[in-house]
Amino acid sequence: MGMRIEEEGRSCRAIVDGDVTVATAAEIQAALSVAVREHDETEVDLAGVEEMDTAGLQIILAAKRCAGKTVRFVNHSAAVLRVLELANLGQQLGDPLLIRASDAAADGRT
Fold first, then answer.
1. Which of 2, 85, 88, 89 has its CA 20 to 30 A from that of 97?
2. Are 33 and 2 in contact (CB under 8 A)?
3. How far is CA 56 from the centre of its chain?
4. Class of domain 2-106
5. In this structure, how many other beta carbons lie within 10 angstroms of the beta carbon of residue 108?
């Protein structure tokens, strides 16, 4: 697991790589909490997420509830999309979900 933060003024981009599971949740939650607390807008890039479980889903839900802050999740990987689909939360989070053709074919959606 890795998270890299790119700062630009009062905004930042958090780039997540690897697994977002119960084994890594505390570390990811801590790093994301700092990024959200210190910036008015945080964009979280999930393209590098290889595996995600409900602990990862809890991190997303908690980040979306930060009062007075804008948090957007972008570039959802196939692993993230699967968890959002299972929980039926994709549309409720308000972030655009783009399904790449290769991911759809791999999941049997085409």
1. 2
2. no
3. 8
4. alpha beta
5. 6
Phi and psi at 33, nearest 5°, equal: -60, -40
CA angle at 93 for the pair 91 and 98, rounded to the nearest 5°: 60
Q: What is the pLDDT of residue 101?
A: 46
**Structure-token pair, residue 53:** 């479980």
Going by pLDDT thresholds of 50, 70 and 90, the confidence category of residue 17 is very high
Residue 54: its H or E element: helix 54-64
Structure tokens at 30: 């801590």
What's the confidence (pLDDT) of residue 67?
Answer: 86
Contact 36, 42 (CB under 8 A): yes
